[in-house]
What we know:
The structure holds two protein chains of two kinds. Chain A is an alpha/beta fold. Chain A is built from ten helices and 14 strands. Chain A folds into two domains: 2-207, P-loop containing nucleotide triphosphate hydrolases (Rossmann fold); 223-322, Hypothetical Protein Yjia, Chain: A,domain 2 (2-Layer Sandwich). In chain A, helix 5 crosses helix 6 (147-155). Chain A is globular, with a radius of gyration of 19 Å. Residues 1-5 and 215-227 of chain A have low confidence and may be disordered. Chain B is mainly β. The A-B interface holds A 1, 3-4, 48, 54, 56, 58-62, 64, 66-70, 77, 79-80, 82-83, 87, 89-92, 118-120 and B 21-23, 25, 39-41, 60-62, 64, 80-81, 101-104, 106, 123-124, 143-144, 146, 162-163, 183-185, 187, 203-204, 225-226, 271-272, 290-291, 314.
Amino acid sequence: MSETKAPEGELVPVTVLTGYLGAGKTTLLNRILTENHGKKYAVVINEFGELGVDNDLVVDTDEEVFEMNNGCICCTVRGDLIRIVGGLMKRRDKFDGIIVETTGLANPAPVAQTFFVDEDVRAKTRLDAIITVVDAKHLPARLADSHEAEDQIAFADVIVLNKMDLVSADEAKEVEATIRKINKFAKIHHATKSDVPIAELLNQGAFDLNRVLDHTPDFLTDNEHEHNDDIASMSFELETPIDPERFNAWIGALLAEKGQDLLRTKGILSYAGEDRRFAFQAVHMIADGDFIGPWKEGDPRTSRLVFIGRNLNRPQLRRGFESCQME
Amino acid sequence: MSQTITPDRLLEERGETRTLDGFVVGAAYDRSGNLAFALGDGSVHIVRKGGEWQKVAAHEGAAMAIAADSRAAGWVTGGDDGRFVRVSTDGTVSAIAEFGMMKWVEHVAATTDGKGVLACSVGKAVHVFDGAGTKLKTVQHPSSVTGLVFDAKGKRFAASHYNGASVWFVASKTDNPRKLEWKGSHIGIAMSPDGDCVVTAMQENSLHGWRLSDGQHMRMTGYPAKTMALSFTKNGKWLASSGADSIVMWPFHGGGPMGKPPTELAGGDGVNCTRVAAHPTHDAIAAGFADGLVVMADINSARILPVAAAGRGPISALAWSPDGTHLAFGTEAGFAAVVDFSKRS
């Protein structure tokens, strides 16, 4: 319903907070709720018992995931979030953002997909970032014994590498390298007791890929060929403008075929004959795209596309992306 | 000399309007003909029969649902402050139950036949009370309740949730519901006046129905948006629904709705219908749209009577008085109105 869609600036930003049990999520939430940062956030949580604050904008919910009846097996959605966002939008006291906490073992995909799938939610909110809180000391053990820990890192736009006081400088380097192997593109904050300035976590527009890539050190843009069950991330760039029809045909087929393996796909594209940047993103098979601000005067109009997932075939992805160039 | 009929003429000549402070969540007439609007700022605006308006504070956060009380006058409301309250026509607010902050009371219902049963949903639970507000029982569902309705006789109630709906007997001692199953997320519910059909709205822009007498399933598809409002006509022949750019009317007669196309009224301008309310006595439907337009449609002649012009916010509440002489509506932007349809001498 385009007539009720609010302009981009009026959409309420939503931050998804994930992290394995004991990583420091609750500490971070408590800070967001109690610190004097002059902003008002609605917080959707699962285990209220751990939070030590009384706040009428905290909503307690059970994570209720359902499968969409659209034939896509990985298309799962949080129906409880659709209801809660709808309810929050009726309140008079407006807030600066919504924070959704997931349980420690949760796969972030259903939360993210909710913000793409439901028209009413899309009309009022935008997914600002997925933040994953990671325990620097115990990450290697978590990765060894659970799929979810790896998925949570793969999905992240922002990673809070917490409990840095418990690791040596060498261990810190190692754990960061481990994270980078899974997700090259997330912004990493080092923290002790989740002490990252809140202003650097919320309403960051972390999806803006140009900024994300700015944070990517050069040495990480390696060219090694990944072909196994581990999660990896890859990025591709094109200088020639993109043909929207070709891109839609290619990415549509790719997501339909490999969507289960592709955890996140994000891109900023330069469409032929268009002065605005086109932002594309997908979680598994569910994709979303929209024009965002114009290209900066004088900046190269480079199209960038990144994939985070399993069984990524670099030559095949590159050839596919290159086939979308305008002739 | 012909007179130009503007879309706002009825509202201007026969309407009483207010600009209120919050999102109008719902409107309900009690059985005596008094009206109340529930708002997103937690207030309830009472419009007494005769036209006197009064604002009362009912909830600390947002009001989430309103229904006519099981008593002859007054209402029950639920809020995101975890309270299920009774609002009297004199403006008195009294708590029936308090479930605690963060436990949203999302749906409320009451019997209208004088039996005096009240119900509200909080998460997966439906709490049932007698007319005095004493808890009768609590029943649980597999996931959060998304819609709650009593049958016309007040003997049973039905709740929608993931993968279907549950139908419960109010007086039953054993707490086993009749389970109506269909995979997916069901987001709203209605029951036909004869109590034989249960229809739910689904996340995937469709309706699903069950005929209780023979277990027949009914699928009603083709909506471009989610159906937020369902309303059976008094005689049960038609089910009106929102979710398309017209009022979608499914025939519940002559073998329908299976295999029959719906009748579409007041369509064609590309703006989605958001609320429908069947007239309590005539074959007519009131409908509100996302641009603020309100119309009344005669089912048999398909004639459309404009009630209010577009431009005051998406219609979010719509209700007829029990005698069908007054139509109340409210919008997301806080506009509220009552239009008098009664004959004038």
